Amino acid sequence: MKPIVFIPLILLILLFSESCEVLKHSSKYSFSEGYYKSRLEHKKLKNVYVIPADDSIKIYTAKRLRDALPDTTSSLKIAFPAQGRPSGFTHYTFRQNTFDVDVLSILLKYRPSIHGFPNQLNTSILNGAVYLGYRTDLYRLKYKQTPFRIYKRDVTHYGFSFGVFTGIGATRMDEFVTLHRIDIQYDGFVNPSGVAAIVGVDKLSFGLLLGEDHLLDKNRKLWIYQGKPWIGLSVGLNLN
Prior knowledge:
Distance between the termini: 38 Å
Largest sheet: 6 strands, antiparallel, barrel
Shape: elongated
Order of helices and strands: HEEEHEEEEEEEE
Helix content: under 10%
Radius of gyration: 24 Å
Number of helices: 2
Number of strands: 11
Strand content: over 45%
């Protein structure tokens, strides 16, 4: 087996070993300090720099911060206390665009009928991938009223991402999926790869995948699903 087939597996191991520590400090799923796009009082989207505090949010226009001596005194301050909606408060939406690097767990694969085999719905414990994509996160700031007529602040997060993935997985190999060209049974390693669309609501994320598998051993030319397209599903809980 050529060394190149181990590249997806090595990437998965490296990313997984660091993922817990990275997620503890990740701001991807929380509204935190950074650059965003927002309309605020303006009709057009503008680049702004946001600094959330305990009971307020400071907003600076990105254009002013690019000056040689940034004017930090001219900021827009929005009152955003934990309880009690301020007078005149309206819903605010902030958008952030970033490049995304994630580890996906592929739970399901739907394979179309081929060589007399009916449609297949495959599941496997070992099916992970490294995902690279372009991500848009939306943060909506608002207040929700409790049954006690108390307004509590609420930040809802929506994420949308489109990109590509590659990884490592396992598949059952036997005489049937090779049209009786082998007479043994074993679990073969495959390299799943393709494109993905991921949607996240707060900490829960779902992914719709379109990919294909490539067997990584000498029987790859005998496998009926080699390089054939499938539709998959990934789901996970973002722990930040």
